Amino acid sequence: MNTINTQRLLEEYVDLFNRQDEENVVQAIPNAAALDWLGSRIPRVSLPDPAIERTYYFRWWTYRKHLKRTPEGFVITEFHPDVSWAGKYNTIPCAAGHHVREGRWLRDNAFLDDYIHFWYQDGGEHLRSYSNWLESAVEALAILRGDDTGLDLTDAFANNLRMWENRQLGDQGLFWSSDNRDGSEFSVSGPGLRPTMNCYQYANRMAVAGFARRSGNAALAEDMDKQARALRQKINTLLWNEEMRFYVALPQSQTHASPNPSPLRQVRELFGYLPWMFGVAEPGRSDAFRQLLDPEGFRGAYGPTTAERRHPCFGLFYTGDALNAWNASRGDPPTGPLGHECLWNGPSWPFATSMMLTALANLLATGEEQQNIHSIDYLMLLSQYAASHIRHLEHGGCVSWIDENLHPDTGDWISRTRLMNWGGERFPKSKGGYERGKDYNHSCFCDLVLEGLFGVRPDWEALSVTPLFPAEWPYAVLEDVSVHGQNLCVYYRKQEGYQVLLNGKIVYSAATPSPCRIPW
């Protein structure tokens, strides 16, 4: 059915990105080797939405830039330049879940085995310097491969979760965390019992239960299942705000979370969608997603805001004075005359946007009967997210770009602008320089196309394909996805129909894109 040369598309995009790039940092795979490396590894797509198609290839092109060869094997970086808050080999665990879930789609992704073992054998305590969902991501990798990935680390996974429990499990049965250690400093809600840490801990316990069952450790599997069930119940009871119809944080004063937090801390934040990303949310709560389309909620021209706009503490600040006035209004100390470049009280962050889109795709894939949000909304939000991957040049024109945080109404990359205003390379050198966010590896995109838009969702028993792209599209092509050691392709042409192929054999066909489930 396919008459589109996706290999040619890849070649054209890589050539474009290489020509646009100022290759200021070179790690394991330089630009000169990008085509060969990507050409043998990435699933290829062809889509009628030019922003999604371009950004899909762009994000693979930037992903390989972060592979770093070390004496202990490959690791994956978040920033290109060294930053003071990173650990060994400039690694940071905050987005490690994104790194593994994104990289799982690559053929020959053995570098992920190095990276995973690094965190549990060499990363040590630094693995817990930021909250993360790494165990859950490793399980997703094992399922896609259909092999024993991670089984040898089952005890290390369980030990990591025990250390989190010993350090941060509160009396309420939920985990507390600092917003900064969730990677979201200066959030409106602040530190406390947050959906982030608690959803991660739930998902990681579910994953370790699965690893334990497959490795024959029934006692560990039962213990992890029990802990996960209890945590899910607590999240749905304590972090669901019935009046706000949203999952929210219970902020804390000093060390104790307050059941009746200050109104200045009660807020809908984009992280409130994480219960849908990790299978925590109860049915009947999908009206929370209406906030994505509400101009007083999270809606933005270039991406969703991290806090709802209607909240009095919503902010988009470029000066230290503005941030310090914001702090004073909440009774918080000032941050100094320059302020801070990374705020989660309003700016759009790809980290949170990509997790929200994963959550939305999960909701839609379940088929839960609801009228609050639809696949066309997922497509709109994904296309908007894709279109934000642009930087306008001072002399005119633009280049594909991914950075830290952006202004939801203008598309300006805020952190880059702030660092430049502080004196270019002079003052911010300790923070990595004003281009530290170039090619920022702190979110996902390709996963949103493969698992979300095309709906490739394998489990241990079968391959499910639940597409979210519309029948009105003239075409959609996905080629060469390695799933359980088999080659998956998906083809759709409006005039010819929809086909799913495994190893070149049609295993499902229909007139329009529709869900299917094929046993292994």
Question: What global shape is seen?
Answer: globular
Neighbour order of strands in the largest sheet? 1-14-15-16-17
Task: Give the fraction of residues assigned to helices.
Answer: 25-40%
Percentage of β-strand residues: 5-15%
Counting DSSP E segments of at least 2 residues, the number of strands comes to 18
Tally of individual helices: 15
Q: What is Rg?
A: 22 Å
* Whole-number mean pLDDT: 94
Low-pLDDT segments, ≥5 res:
none
How far is the N terminus from the C terminus?
A: 24 Å
- Class from secondary-structure proportions: alpha+beta
What would you say this structure looks like, in words?
The chain is of the alpha+beta class and 520 residues long. Helices cover 35% and strands 14% of the residues. The protein has a 5-stranded antiparallel sheet with strand order 1-14-15-16-17. Strands 4-5-8-9 form a 4-stranded antiparallel sheet. A 3-stranded antiparallel sheet has the order 12-13-18. A hairpin with a 3-residue loop joins strand 12 and strand 13. The longest helix has 21 residues, at 218-238. The chain is globular.
